[in-house]
Amino acid sequence: MRMTGPSAIMSRVIEETLSPKKEEEGAIGYIRPSSLAKGCVLYVAMELLKVPKEEIDNRVKRILEAGTSSHFRIPKYFSKITVAKEMPFLDEEYRIRGQCDALIYIPPDLDVEHSGFYVVEIKTTSSSEFERIKEAGQPKEEHITQCLIYIWGLTRYYKSIPIRGGIIYYENRDTLDYHLFNVTYDENLLLPLLNEIKAMLPGLIIEGKLPEAHLPLDHWAHEYCPYLSVCDYGQEAMKLKKEKKSEIPDRVLAEIIGMRIVKKQRAKEEKVKKKTPRTLEELSEEFNWE
Ligand code: SF4
After folding, report:
1. pLDDT at 246
2. Taking the model in full, what pTM does it have?
3. Whose CA is nearest to atom 7 of ligand 1?
4. Is any ligand 1 atom within 6 A of the Cβ of residue 35?
C-alpha cells in the first residue's frame, strides 16, 4: 500500500539518510581491516583512491546498520572481562586504520593457562550462514584475517599490550544464539598480504597507479564487490563463473537442489522435535525412572 501523509515524509527521510554521501575529495584515505581481510589489493587501492562504489540497496544498508548497532549491545555480555571497547589503532607505514570491537583480559583466577589479553571480533549473521559456520567448525577465512589484523595493529600501535590471540563472536541475527571461536595469532599468515600492500603503496601514492588483482578468478569476493562494474578482472571472473554454471547439466543441478531441500526440511524437523515438550512417560523412559 502506498504511504501518504506523515508516514510518506518519514519514509523519504529514511531513504535520504541512507543515500550515498558525496565522497570527500583530496588525499588518499586509510585501509580498513574489513576491506583488507577480503584479500584483494586492487579493492583496497580503489578504496584508498576513493573510487566511487556501486550503490548498495537501502535494505542491505539497514541489515549492516543492525550489525553495527549490535556491537554496542553484545560487549555488555562480557563486560566483566572487557578492558576496552572500540579500541582504535593507526599504522602509517601500511596506511591501515581500524578499531577492534573489544579487548578482554582473562585473569589468572578464571584460568591460569589462558590468562591474558585477547581481541574480540563481533560478527552478526543470517540463520543459514550461522548454521553453516557452526557446521564447518571454523570461522570464515576473511573473519580470521580481520581478527589477525586487529591483533597485529593493536600490538604495533600500543606496543606494551601482550595480546595472546583473538576470539570471534558470531551472533545469529534471528535467534540471537551465539557461537565463539578461538583465533591463534600467527603474523606469518598476514605477511603475504602486508607485503602486497607495502609494494603497492608507493606507486599508488605517487602516480595513482592501481595494482594488479591477485585474487583467484573463482574467489567469492568478486561477485559481491562494489567495484565489479569498473573492474575488468572481476568481470572476467564473473564471465567464467557463468560459463562453468552452464556446463553443469540441468539433471545434476536438479539433484543438488533436491538434496538441499530435503536436508533443510530434515533440519527443520529436528529443531521442532527438540522444542516439543516431552511427556512424563517419555522422560521416564529416557532417564530410566522406575
Ligand atoms: S571485482 Fe574482484 S578483483 Fe576487482 S576489485 Fe573487486 S574483488 Fe578485486
Report:
1. 66
2. 0.76
3. 222
4. no
